[in-house]
Amino acid sequence: MNFFHRFGRLTGQVSDHVIGWLLLVSVLLNVTQVFTRYALNDPLFWTEEMVRYTTVWLTFVGAAAGSLYGDHMDMNLFLEVKSRRFQAWHQAFLQLIILVFCAIIIWQGTRFCLLNGMQTAPATGLPMLYVYGATVVGGVMLAIVSVHKLLLALHQEPTAETAP
User: Fold this and answer.
1) Which of 131, 109, 135, 104 has its CA nearest to residue 118?
2) Which residues lie across from 122 on neighbouring strands?
3) At a CB cut-off of 8 Å and minimum separation 6, what does 34 contact?
4) Tens-place pLDDT, residues 72-84
5) Which long-range contacts (CB under 8 A, 24 or more apart) does 51-59 make?
6) Whole-model pTM?
7) Residue 60, SS3?
8) Phi, psi (5° rounding) for residue 127?
């Protein structure tokens, strides 16, 4: 069990570092595009497309980091319920919903990769498998983090004063 908890945290941390680097690349590509367009009056044709694909990877891979650190937007409808057992089951239920969502994303992302992955991007000639692969990689990373959080929620022991 400890191995999976470490693996879940590591997956979220790797996701966090990857999106940091992807954000840096995206900013540098944007600055390059603006500079070449307005200062040199000769824009690079491929930068806009690469920024778009970098953003796709940021979104899907970043979901795992956002989930690990609890940065996703949520509705705290049951936040005032003080029972630790209820909160644990509520968190477990939410993680199960996320896992269902991950299964759909991985399934459809894999299907999309298989059906359309051999197409090439118009400006860069990049195989679209690399772009569509973001859904599968991000879905798997999010699923790993969600299983980690599900196990944490299920293994919380209620204390004597909060046990029903």
Assistant:
1) 131
2) none
3) none
4) 766 677 667 777 8
5) 51/26, 53/121, 53/126, 53/130, 53/131, 54/22, 54/25, 54/26, 54/29, 55/26, 56/131, 56/134, 57/18, 57/22, 57/134, 57/138, 58/19, 58/22, 58/23, 58/26, 59/134, 59/138
6) 0.83
7) helix
8) -60, 135
